[in-house]
Specification:
7 helices; globular; mainly alpha
């Protein structure tokens, strides 16, 4: 598994655990450290995992609003915890992070959904992030080539 993909996987798993436990932000650093040790010993991109989690938390309200607007039939609390946190990472990378090309962010989220989610998770994540990306391209056509 490539370093950044593994780092995203650890970030998503950490957000999943945090969400499952009722979103106690104080324990998030310990969750991340534990998951990096448990699932990614020797990972060179540890800071990337932490940056993803921090970025999601810092922008959580806006991220959840965006998910809600692109998945109106699914209120955020009705989306499975796995899919919700995969989408959070994907939306963060797509909308807030400048480190990753948009198409890479979408493809990585889809791969996480296929690995960790249910049978239709990949299609769901693709639909939400794809719609968001299409709207972003309407606002900034240069994104289509990135």
């Amino acid at each position: 598994m490539a370093n950044r993909h593994l780092a995203r996987s650890v970030a998503m798993q950490s957000l999943f655990e945090w969400d499952f436990k009722g979103t106690p932000t104080a324990i998030l650093p310990a969750i991340i450290d534990h998951n990096l040790t448990e699932f990614a010993p020797g990972l060179e991109e540890k800071e990337f995992s932490k940056k993803l989690v921090d970025g999601v938390i810092e922008n959580l309200k806006e991220i959840d609003q965006l998910i809600g607007s692109y998945a109106p039939s699914w209120p955020i609390n009705q989306i499975t915890i796995v899919d919700r946190n995969i989408l959070r990472v994907g939306v963060y990378e797509l909308k807030f992070s400048k480190d990753v090309p948009p198409k890479v962010a979408i493809n990585e989220a889809i791969e996480l959904a296929k690995s960790f989610g249910g049978a239709s998770s990949g299609k769901f994540v693709n639909g939400v992030l794809g719609s968001m990306f299409n709207d972003m391209v309407k606002e900034n056509p240069d994104l289509a080539s990135s």
